[in-house]
UniProtKB/TrEMBL annotation:
Leader sequence segment: none
Name listed for the protein in its UniProt record: Glycosyltransferase
Molecular function terms from GO: UDP-glucosyltransferase activity
Coiled coil regions in record: none
Pfam families assigned to the protein according to its UniProt record, in alphabetical order: UDPGT
Family (UniProt): Belongs to the UDP-glycosyltransferase family.
SUPFAM superfamilies for the chain: UDP-Glycosyltransferase/glycogen phosphorylase
Amino acid sequence: MVSENQKLHVMFLPYIAPGHMVPMVDMARLFAANGIQVTIILTTMNARRFQNAIDRDSRLGREISLRILRFPSQEAGLPEGCENLMSTSTPETTKKLFPALELLRPEIEKLFREQNPNCIVSDNLFPWTVSIAEELGIPRLAFTGSGFFNNCVSHSLEHHQPFKNIVSETQKFTVPGLPDQVKLSRSQLPDIVKCKSTGFSAMFDELNNAERRSFGVLMNSFYELEPAYADHFRRVTGKKAWHLGPVSLYNRDVDDKAERGDKSCVSKHSCLSWLNSRKPNSVLYICFGSLTRFSKEQTLEIAAALKESGHSFIWVVGKILKTDDDQEEESWLPDGFEDEVRRNDRGFIIKGWAPQVLILEHQAIGGFLTHCGWNSILEGVSAGVPMVTWPVFAEQFNNEKLVTQVLKFGLPVGNEIWKIWATQDSPVINRGNIKNAICAVMDNDDQEAVKMRKKANHLKELAKKAVEEGGSSCNDLKALIEDIRLYKHK
Ligand code: UDP
């Protein structure tokens, strides 16, 4: 138990992927804004992405700092500067990141022992932090990176294994025991879910056990978005959970929005002035998160669909999947595409880190073509934009179902196949399907599109209320801080 007048110290350990670091740093900053001393552990290149934001907080008098560790790139045979999942270009390089993280573990454990904080907020991908928390007699909070809905779907799939008796990969089955009818196919599930015997399944059991031994789970979500699932999760897992999101909404300063997660590769002025020249709800924003890579063939289909749709767009063109021939190419667009877009003033192309939150919030944005990463879903919800869903891997297919089958403010582009980071053999979604989904969401005269837009706008209002004083997330944060203070080691 920590007395009222003693300041709490909470240490955050984010995983090395932008989709985990970005919301965890937001959460850490939220804690600091609420009078808690905060330390965030990051390695050199990852820390650089957040330094400006942390400096801004420090200037406001908040007790927040980065504890920067050297990433053992050399020892792990990685190129210098390759410190997170976004910076790797091949599956082989990615695999080397995991042993490198193991090399860092003793140093992080030592740091926890030296600092002796009142609480550890750990990414759930670091299950070993639960032992350290137990040793120090302090609570460990696990950050899962996704929401209640996905956790409920995953729990049901693990316990009921409904995919086992399904003959065809594409046949739809209902996920058992959920508050709504949710349909998935085997082809949309990760291999680790389908084949429990893989090496990965032992790893997932370890993560689950660590979560069970933890004080509870922190969700970047808000109650009103998925109330039935927030209740269902607590009931079926027996875990304590606090919802603190959408955490992106705590970025109120324009620089915080523009630099969230990294320095943007375009100036906020150029981006905003282009958006200011557009009519409300007329621009489609396209971004597939920080990790997805498409083939040239797929990129070509997207470009053609955009052209044929006739809608204006901002397209964050990700890195392409490399073949042996294009060693040097990072992002790729069909010949003449950029010139044509510029000539017709049809779009704004971003090759690199985009100021996503700043863009989504602009009134000109009328739709979001998204890969359904959980952060992107929440950011789209917070901005009130209907979605065109294109899940690729991780838990993105589950998130898609929340949007298209439960909340119904988006339409699928029709990807049916789960593939890690979209490998070369991923089936290509053709321009016709992409264009149809875009037009169905962006058409401001269509009844169904209007309905989806209304729904999205309603969710935006609920999201805003949740983080305001007296809102559900704000109340949960206060309850959590009190729970940390009152924590007694068993
Ligand atoms: N993001 C961004 N600019 C980019 C790409 C991504 O700001 O150019 C942010 C995005 O706003 C989100 C996070 O990075 O907060 C990506 O997380 P998400 O869960 O959406 O997808 P992931 O990258 O984990 O697949």
